[in-house]
Amino acid sequence: MGAADPGAQLAVKRCLIDTGPCVAYLDRRDPRHAQVAAELDAFKGQLITTPAVVTEVMHFLSTVPEGPAAFAEFLALAGVQLGALDSVDDVAGAARLMADYADTPMDFADATLVRLADASGVTDILTLDRRGFSAYRTAKGKRFRVVPAG
Q: What are the residues whose beta carbons fall under 8 Å from the beta carbon of 93, sequence distance 6 or more?
């Protein structure tokens, strides 16, 4: 067997992150705080989200003392990547998804995560919305893998 190529890079695990885990991580009163904190603290890789998720998190944390500032710090320290879904076509595509999944239902932030999954190929997602992300599919028909699996 040949020696490993020293120039080869290991693939970095990439995972989408939804609103719920961000809020639970930063709000110690949230009943899922301990579980989400353990998951996020153990995660080694690149977290990716959308500006719509950031907006939702900022809204939900607005009543938590220092919540928005703590979230901004979390984004920076964790190196969370913001997916660029910034065109009118992206908004229209998200609106179509929301209509398609109206019975689930799907909100705008969820729709942007589905669009980001299509654009990035990342289908692992840290979410508390098991029902939604178990039903949602990318445009290519790929299923999401909800993290944590348990």
A: 111, 115
Biggest CA-to-CA distance, the chain: 58
CATH no. of 14-147: 3.40.50.1010
Q: What is the pLDDT of residues 61-113, one digit of tens each?
A: 999 999 999 999 999 999 999 997 778 999 999 999 999 999 998 999 999 99
Are 53 and 19 in contact, with CB atoms under 8 Å apart?
yes
**pTM for the full model?**
0.89
Where do the structural domains in the chain lie, given as residue ranges?
Answer: 14-147
Of 54, 127, 125, nearest to 84 by C-alpha is 54
Query: Residue type at 89?
Result: D
Q: Is residue 70 helix, strand or coil?
A: helix
